[in-house]
Design goal:
Blueprint: H1 10-20, H2 25-36, H3 46-59, E1 63-67, H4 73-79, E2 86-92, H5 95-112, E3 116-122, H6 125-129, E4 138-143, H7 150-160, E5 161-170, H8 186-204, E6 208-213, E7 219-224
Parallel strand pairs: 1-2, 1-4, 2-3, 4-5
Antiparallel strand pairs: 5-7, 6-7
Helix pairs in contact: 3-4
Bound molecules: S-adenosylmethionine.
Length: about 230
Amino acid sequence: MEKGFGAGQIELKHYAESVFRPVDSALERIGQSIASSGLPQIQVGPMDGRHLEVLSRALAPSTIVEIGTLGGYSGLCLMRGIRPGGEFHGYEKSAAHAELTRRNLQIAKEQEGLQVSIHIQEGEALKALAQWPRDRRVDLVFIDADKVSYSAYLDWAAQHLRVGGVVLGDNTFGWGDVVRVPELIGQARDTVGALDQFNRKLAADSRFLSTIWPTAEGLTMGVKVRD
Ligand SMILES: C[S@@+](CC[C@H](N)C(=O)[O-])C[C@H]1O[C@@H](n2cnc3c(N)ncnc32)[C@H](O)[C@@H]1O
């Protein structure tokens, strides 16, 4: 019998969260700060944050780039895996979101004794990323900003990741609609169509070996296997 991803059972989510307990006090605090600042509560879900932290700790990156930081929830998950002396670079369009990210990551850095330098760049990510030195390699890129730019962010990642480095893109199931792009209209078509293009572009890129993890939102991951 063919089995669907995760079978969409909410009980599985509750099971995973109750067994793995992915939200510790620091992440809880960041979640609360996002809510109390009136920012949209669109950070990654609890288990998605855990996936990011597990991946980052396994990779032990020296340089992480996150595109779309909101208030630093996924940023902290990623930052915890960084090698001592490493760098976390966040790109965030909204001044208020960037400021909250800075504050939250600085608090977590001090409380957890993380040896990392944190750089949060405010503004359009594509414009800011264009300033990144061409020969400066990156170990991990997490894409979680405007969906229509995912393919452009992938181009940037492909150019700057070292071999063995990883690109991650969130929401790549397009809220379940990535399988029916031709039926969509307007903004939904643009947004979900862009996610579909991102998946297909990464899957077809011979520099990467890639997959889509069947998380609640779909988490696309590619490891760079050649330059
Ligand atoms: C889904 S939220 C990020 C959530 C965050 N990664 C987390 O899980 O904690 C998307 C963020 O991308 C930002 N964003 C949207 N378009 C952007 C752009 N063109 N450049 C930089 N950031 C952008 C939004 O302001 C928002 O804070």
